[in-house]
Amino acid sequence: MTTKSILICGVGGQGILTASDLLSDVLLQAGFQVKKSEVHGMSQRGGDVISTVRYGDEVFSPLPALQETDYILAFEKLEALRNIRYLSAKGIVLVNDFEWLPLPVAAGFEKYPQDIVPQLRRLAGELVLIPATRMAAELGNDKASNVVLIGLLASRMEIEEKLWLDVLRRKVPPRFLDLNLKAFDAGFRFRAGA
Amino acid sequence: MAKELLSGNEAIARGAWEAGITFASAYPGTPSTEILENIIRYKDDIHSQWGANEKTAMEEALGASFTGARALVAMKHVGVNVAADPLFSASYIGSTGALVIISADDPGMHSSQNEQDNRHYAVAAKLPVLEPADSQEAKDMVLEAVKISETYDTPVMIRMTTRTSHSRTVVELGERQSPPVPEYKSDFAKRNLLPGNARRRHVAVEERLKKLAVFSDGFAFNTIIKGKERVGVLASGVSYQYGREVFPDAWFLKLALPYPFPVKLFQRFAAMVDKIYVLEENDPIIETFARLALKVPAEGTAPQKEIVGKEVFPLLGELSQDVVRASLGLKDLTPRNAGEGVPGRPPSLCAGCPHTAFFYNLGILKVQSKGDIGCYTLGALRPLSAMDTCVDMGASITVQLGIEKALEKAGKSVPQVAVIGDSTFFHSGITGLIDVIYNRGQSTVAILDNSITAMTGHQENPGSGKTLLGQEARKIDILKLVRDGLGIEHAYEIDGYEVKAIRELLKREMARPEPSVIVVRRPCVLLYRKAKWSPMAVHKETCTSCKTCLRLGCPAISTDVDGKSLINASLCTGCGVCAQVCPYKAIAFVDEKGLHISSLTLESFAMGGGK
Asked: N or C, where is chain A less crowded by C-beta within 10 Å?
């Protein structure tokens, strides 16, 4: 198969690197060659964070190419828009319906765009908005929103559900496992408009 | 053998363990920090420690090597500048046990003040340098570096980059080699670099380089990969991966040991192709050697080969398959859509950061501080905007002294504040402070002490009371050090949350024609946030929309649709700094019944308490 690319983006502290670690592990278990890249260092300081995963029979670059990325999984709406230039023409965009104001916006220097969803809709092959932060909060902890989003991504990829659950069971500490399994399930079975 | 997805830094740590390394030291710095943080996993087999700076870490690793133990030292690229003195001496001395030096470069400057290419150091110090292209190679290169170091009596550098350090790729795990048993034996002729000895050592270094050049020609990781066209790509590090994406049918010469350059191997490669693209990040190092190699007549090499290098590919920033394609005119990177022009999301001081009130006060006093490297460099960004220089580790105090003395000579004076963090002070601020005292300076030096090396992800330091391995350590008390040790009479400690008191102290000390030190103390909020603290809230009727609180740049504060201040309760740590700066007392704690404002609450806060 040709190499596929997934870009995960959001704000530092949202659990992006944990999510891309989970995803990479599942892909490795599924028998693919996997390369994952991330930019961090300032990630705990409210900056934007990107992690990318590429998989296939033989993967060279750990970085996805602009306009050639198959999936964008955005933990925050503005970050989806910032990275949409990576998306391929038929690419799938999965977005947490959640706004986190950047400091320059909060401080009144800049405006948060109001037309993010229409812009994304115009550019994406498929767009799914999911209230992952709210869903995770309803399950008991909004920090599990990353696993809700991974569940949604899993529903769009051709990897059996069991593999995802196995990796979750192996990687998540026991006291958070139940929450995370529920979060995954909620994302996996999510239907837009439901 | 088991396979795992490891980051380049995890792979280096694993390689250190497998290679029988028993000593590791470092000073934290992105993108190198996780190397030592992962080496702690092997603490039964490897002693590891943070140095006060990269120079001390390098010298300690060299000392370990003197005993025959295998040693590794890791740092970011600019850290090698700090450690350059022992690096050059170590090259002359050579290695008894292996000495492996990891330089993690940062092309693209994700979190650095420059993007220097540290392969230049290997050339200048006459050391071999290895450049892994993925995590498997990062692990393999540590094992190779140990072999090369002990076979050729040389320290060996491994050049990582942000991309190789922070990418995860599959690594096959191996067993640990049994480490040599250390024993200190004197070797005056090698290790005491008096000029007479050093002259003889230089001869040995030049001989060593010749042998390493022969070795490089036959090194198994310097590989030719067959292609279908008469096009060649010469590449090192992660650039090789980008090359494979862009040139699927080309021949490749992949260099894991770019210096000493494998001249004969390259000449053989050049004979197979008509045109050679050279892919490397930052400076044209292998390109320069390749061009030289083609000037030397060699059997089987056609005299004219076209080499395409830095006249086409950028010197600046990281490469990627996109950058390579765009450089060759094969891809237009102009976005087909928005994605540009969206508001940026710069990093900022955290909600509850104990540095915020200090920078807010500098703004009120209209002082541009001379800054340093750490979280507090974010005090330079708006709305705090209170730092106009940031040069290198420790430069706040020294740059300020230079400014002061130059102005003084011209009969001028400007109120000056240097700002430095605790870890940076231990790293190289203390020597600058000695210069201030010795040279009769008048600077006010603020040491923002959050008791941890925060920016790189909370590493212990000489002021935190813990070693890298988690053992108790003597806590160096900065106030005592500068007052009782250096004899600075005007040295004070103050709580980072006490807005007004900090301002008064700053005013008084800046006016004083003598050196003074203000230690602004409060542990990093990310580590010591008290879960029980209540968030703050704004009393809407009292708020006049004056936006004073927004000048703190606190990520928890924004405005609502009416322009009134709004505090995000899930981000707020209840530090109370905003309540102190609000001229209308419109901000206070929330109690169980909703909003609760009382002078009692506000006062209990200023005392550093909570609810």
From this structure: C
